[in-house]
Design goal:
The complex is a heterohexamer, with 3 copies of chain A (71 residues) and 3 copies of chain D (58 residues). Chain A has helices at residues 2-26, 36-70. Chain A has 71 residues and is an all-alpha fold. Chain A is elongated and about 55 Å long. Chain D is built from 2 helices and no strands. The longest helix of chain D has 32 residues, at 24-55. The chains are: A mainly alpha (71), D mainly alpha (58). Chains in contact: A-D, A-F, B-D, B-E, C-E, C-F.
Chain lengths: 71, 71, 71, 58, 58, 58
Amino acid sequence: QVKQQIAVANAQELLTKMTEKCFKKCIHKPGTSLDSSEQKCVAMCMDRYMDSWNLVSKAYSLRIQRERTNM
Amino acid sequence: QVKQQIAVANAQELLTKMTEKCFKKCIHKPGTSLDSSEQKCVAMCMDRYMDSWNLVSKAYSLRIQRERTNM
Amino acid sequence: QVKQQIAVANAQELLTKMTEKCFKKCIHKPGTSLDSSEQKCVAMCMDRYMDSWNLVSKAYSLRIQRERTNM
Amino acid sequence: MQIHEFNDFCWDKCVEKTGNKLDSKTETCLTNCVDRFIDVSLLITNRFAQLLQKSAGI
Amino acid sequence: MQIHEFNDFCWDKCVEKTGNKLDSKTETCLTNCVDRFIDVSLLITNRFAQLLQKSAGI
Amino acid sequence: MQIHEFNDFCWDKCVEKTGNKLDSKTETCLTNCVDRFIDVSLLITNRFAQLLQKSAGI
């Protein structure tokens, strides 16, 4: 159950960061609604943010393993 | 009393944010004292920051209400 | 022992901030390793960051003293 | 997200000059900024939930 | 506000290059930055207190 | 430091456009960014420890 709480907290943090980063990337002048190009941009940005998260996460794990081996 | 603590915490957060934002807007090169134009700028910036806070706060409440009605 | 914990927390905060600030100043395009000019830049940036910390710390203490005297 | 954080974010997005009052363009920007931020947040949250369901094979 | 936060803020404001030592212009900027930050903070806090009192009709 | 913070930092450093996929230059930048960040962190931490020892006269 603790693991589940961590997973939920992690997902929330991810969603918060993605919202901020993708708003900054995609909404240059906030209008009266999200137009379709903004929506597409947000969806794409979200996918790339998760790609980035996965890459960063893998690089970090590999590095930690290497550091442990070197100790 | 809890309400009062929240109000105080809120005011402190507002004061902290205003100080940072208005320093950034008004003090370009920090000199040996705040000159009168910097003081005026800070006072004006503070008023506008509170205007902004009120607008943002109202927009947020209206949106939350709309979302609740749509559910 | 509480004092020691504060000192450790302080040092950690300092190390974290220095890492971020000096990465931003010295690593423009992250390559496959830290080259020697980047290493030199980081070492120098670190020294300057601690100089800055000392100056800021002194200026803050002096100001607090002055404010107390004026009260 | 708190009002403080919305205001922090939308202030940086919308407010350039701080004169005797916020001009109407800035006011509109602030109001729209809050609404679009919530739109983006909902879009991302819903899409994330869909991706999770898809990857869970539901 | 902690020394860390002052240093973070004033470093971004004042330090451009990081050479063999901080030049005197940068040193003056850092010291003034702390003092002016506190000035701005006091100005805002006092003015806020006045506005509160006025709106409370005291 | 958490993955979220690394990703936040390295996203700002490396990702300019968000197209249909991350191009290989951006991918390399992200991976290197994490590794160099850890290098900088280790460099600073070790050097800090040395300075402490020196100032303690050990």
